[in-house]
Amino acid sequence: MGKFNWEGTSAEGLRKKGVIEAASVEDARKKLLSVQIEPTSVKRNLTNIEIVLPSTGRVKSKTLVVFTRQLATMIDAGLPLVQCLDILGTQEPDPHFKRVIQGIKAHVETGGTLADGLKKYPRAFDTLFVSLVQAGEVGGILDTILNRLAAYVEKNQKTVQKVKGAMKYPTFVMIAAVVIVGFMLWKIVPQFAGMFMSLGGNELPKLTAIVVAASNWFVAHIILIILIIAAAITAFVLFKRSKFGRRTLDMIALKLPVLGPLVQKSAVARFTRTLGTLVSSGVPIMEGLDVVARSAGNVMIEEAIQYTRTKVGEGLSIAGPLEETNVFPKMVVQMVGVGEQTGALDIMLTKIADFYDDEVDVAVDSLTSLLEPILMVVIGGSVGVVLISMYLPIFGMADNISGQK
Prior knowledge:
Elements: E1 2-10, E2 15-22, H1 25-34, E3 37-44, H2 61-76, H3 81-91, H4 95-109, H5 114-119, H6 127-139, H7 142-198, H8 206-220, H9 222-241, H10 243-255, H11 259-280, H12 285-294, H13 299-313, H14 319-325, H15 330-342, H16 345-404
Antiparallel strand pairs: 1-2, 1-3
Helix pairs in contact: 2-3, 2-7, 3-4, 6-7, 7-8, 7-11, 7-16, 8-16, 9-10, 10-11, 11-12, 11-16, 12-13, 13-14, 14-15, 15-16
């Protein structure tokens, strides 16, 4: 949003001018026409240009939840949608999201729907959010839908953070171990090796000789090692961004011995909660499955849901195709089948999601308790081997001195 200087003619034929706040020149013209002023000149007010810092376009989940709940409360209280957006945009502390809200408000003021306004900002509002808002507007239950959305975002983000936290911990520890051992080989071991040589130690213990040789090789090729690591990281990122690479990595993630079950449970919780929220909000099942597939977060899960959607379009139930994909646990398939037969699919999906949220909690706790001792042994053992190898010659020298006495 910005300020624009305008000049124009009123309905009575009088010349007028002033300043108006709008998202663009075109938006300013539309606002003037809405109050029966024919604009002859609309220019941006250069004294009020806002400096906009680069932004990723993403909105924090907490910010989105607060916005959604406040908008639901205001609409439930009977406030007009434009006024709700105006209030929320004015008090929003995040400058990027503030501009997003003001842009949506400008769209709604021109007669557009809220869902269409949200579609203009796909990095802030995903397909699920837009679809549910659209269903709420059509059904006249926008406040109810927004409250469901806020609850969904909160629970979904909680599950995602737990899975990411479980994966970040071992990664961080392994990187720390590599950095510590690398620093010791680069700086500490050469100091000890120089000291041994100055003391005339020709024969070093086997372990010490191996570590010193590794240190010498590391120091001699450190630039090459850094380049190889950088190239490997770049290649991995490019591979991950490719369609084939993403599919391969997602397939591996589901089949890993320890992390695989955690990834699967998280994906099941996300699938069932998302579909349950859509179905309970009145979104058609075909559209719901399409939305769920696009927000699955895993290519293998996405392909399984799209396959199910195709079969449902051919007249089959959801449970049968889900079982054929061999991606979802049998219990999930059976409960979905029961939900379809009893006409309570949304309730059954929500129960499955709650169950798998608890399963994720248990899996994360188990994974953490299993990995902690293993990682401590790895990092402690790596550092310990280097340190012991450096002290072995010193112990040998001490034994020789005591023997000579």
